[in-house]
Amino acid sequence: IGCLGHYLARGRHKSFGAIALLTLAVSIGSLVGFLLVPAEVLADLFRHSAVPLTALTALGTVLTAVLIATQIRQVETLRAKRIYQAMVEEMPECLSAKDLDGRFLAANKATADLMRATGPASLLGKTDFDYYPEDLARQYRQDEIDVMASGRSRWIEQPGLFPDGSTGWLSTLKAPLRDEGGEIVGLITHNRNVTESRRLARIKEELLATVSHEIRTPLTSIKGTLALLDAGIAGQIPDEAARLIGIAHTNAARLERIVSDILDVEKLRAGALPMDVAPVTVADALREAVLATTGFAPTKELKIDVDSEEGLTVSADPLRLQQVLANLLSNAMKHSPVNGLVRIEAQSRGDWVTVSIADSGPGVPEAFVSRLFQRFEQADQDPAQARGGTGLGLSIAQEMVEAMSGEIGYDRQGGESVFWFSLPRIRHTEMPAAAQIRTPLPEMRTGL
């Protein structure tokens, strides 16, 4: 019965119910065993031995089953521990755990190699001060203290000192180490050498910036010359030649915008794009953006509705705010169907003003939403409906909004694609609350 129970329960968790069922089966089997005893001694043996024998059999079955289950769990735990230990030890990136005072509790071989220790065991009980210059060790320790004080994990870019004496950069994840009660008892650290990737990123940025600058100067001259020819400054031009010049001028203007986008991305990444933050009236900014953008709208007879609370003022750079609005508006116009509607709405939400731009286009594919604001990312399109672009507009809009202490996002609501951004609100204490009413701006249509 025991062997049969083990066969039926193989691979399953040995619960108390399963043990009780096995005990009952074995006890019944023990009683059935009395049938094998000769009839002339069965009655006397059953009367004297059945109860104690069955009780002892049941107790022995329970104890044996519990011991076996415990042993199986211990074997499984040991196997999992060995797998985890082998995984950590063979990891080429550094992984370690420290106590509240910064002393190593555990470390893998990669950590020992980085710190020029003889092995993981030699690190135990020691701190960064035993292996690094004091100023570098102090910086590491301060980062650890900050993470434990906040109680949250953080990725940190840290300077690194490598075994060959060279310096570089480490991308470090620091996470609080907690006990069973949730109390922080130390820190877990994961380090990855990112020196080479940072070097390659810098080379790429410098290359992009150089190419962009070298392209912009002749491109400006080409665009200006084409504009003059298109305006007839060189005399009357045949219709077909004028049409080709117009196409060339349009493409030159588009290429100039692409170069400008690339330069803006590099400036934003370097923190070199100037931000002249000042109070901006939202309604005026929306009017200006719509008037400026409709000139670039497709020939779709689009309807543009603008609805804004009058008197709303935000803290923003007027020029950068117009660039953000232009990116989002042109994006909505490009993806709207013929005779479609683009809705622009500005609302106050506590200390924030949220501007949303909605269109009735097909929307962003669900699988692409997570990459929507990444550089050079574009959703797959039907070749017949491809609209061009570099995949930089939304990325630039996000970085500019965040540089103005705001937030930007995307939602799909009621069959509409809604891009929105929020900026800090500036309150006018002298303006009565009753005066802040919703006044629709004039309806605008594009018929280009």
Q: In short, what is this structure?
A:
With 448 residues, the chain is an alpha+beta fold. Helix content is 47%, strand content 21%.
Q: Could you name the key traits of this structure?
A:
5-stranded antiparallel beta sheet; alpha+beta; 448 residues
Please, could you describe this protein's structure?
The chain is elongated. The termini are far apart. The longest helix has 52 residues. Strands 7, 9, 10, 11, 12, 13 and 14 form a 7-stranded mixed β-sheet that branches. With 448 residues, it is α+β, with helices and mostly antiparallel strands. The C terminus is likely disordered. Helix 7 packs antiparallel against helix 8.
Shape: elongated
Instruction: Please provide the ordered H/E string of secondary-structure elements.
Output: HHHEEHHHEEEHHEHEEHEEHEEEE
The helix content, as a percent range, equals 40-55%
Residue share in β-strands? 15-25%
Low-confidence stretches: 382-388, 430-448
Rounded radius of gyration (Å): 36 Å
Query: What is the tally of helical segments?
Result: 11
What's the total number of strands?
14
Sheet having the most strands: 7 strands, mixed
Structural class: alpha+beta
In whole angstroms, how far apart are the ends?
Answer: 87 Å
The overall average pLDDT, rounded, is 80
Which secondary structure elements does this structure contain, and how are they paired or packed?
Elements: H1 2-8, H2 16-32, H3 39-90, E1 94-99, E2 104-107, H4 109-114, H5 120-123, H6 134-150, E3 154-161, E4 167-178, E5 184-193, H7 195-230, H8 239-270, E6 278-281, H9 282-293, E7 303-309, E8 313-316, H10 318-335, E9 341-349, E10 352-359, H11 393-403, E11 407-413, E12 416-424, E13 438-440, E14 444-445
Parallel strand pairs: 7-9
Antiparallel strand pairs: 1-2, 1-5, 3-4, 4-5, 6-8, 7-13, 7-14, 9-10, 10-12, 11-12
Helix pairs in contact: 2-3, 7-8, 8-11, 9-10, 10-11
